[in-house]
Amino acid sequence: MAKQSTSKNGTSRIRFIMLDAEIPEGDLNQITLAIQNALRDRFENRLAMGSV
């Protein structure tokens, strides 16, 4: 669950990710791994910067 801010003075950031792909049946592991790595790298970078 996302953290909710108690103040009303700031801004909110929303990121919506959509993927539309045609891939061969049974080849879902490769795209799943790519998505997980991309999101993990992004989250770990934010943790390192102290913004989470």
What labels would you give this structure?
52 residues, mainly alpha, 1 helix, 0% strand
Q: Quaternary state, please?
A: single chain
Strand content: under 5%
Query: How many beta-strand runs?
Result: 0
- Give the end-to-end Cα distance, rounded to a whole number of Å: 13 Å
Order of helices and strands: H
- The amount of helix comes to 40-55%
How many helices? 1
Rg, Cα atoms, Å = 16 Å
Pairing-aware structural class of the strands and helices? mainly alpha
Q: How is the main sheet built?
A: none
Point out poorly predicted stretches.
none
pLDDT averaged residue by residue: 76
- Shape by Cα distribution: elongated
Protein model, in words:
- This protein is mostly helical and 52 residues long.
- The protein has a domain at 28-52.
- The protein contains one helix and no strands.
- It has one helix at residues 28-49.
- The model has no long low-confidence stretch (mean pLDDT 76).
Short note summarizing the structure:
With 52 residues, the chain is an all-alpha fold. The model has no long low-confidence stretch (mean pLDDT 76).
How would you summarize the topology of this molecule?
Blueprint lengths: L27 H22 L3
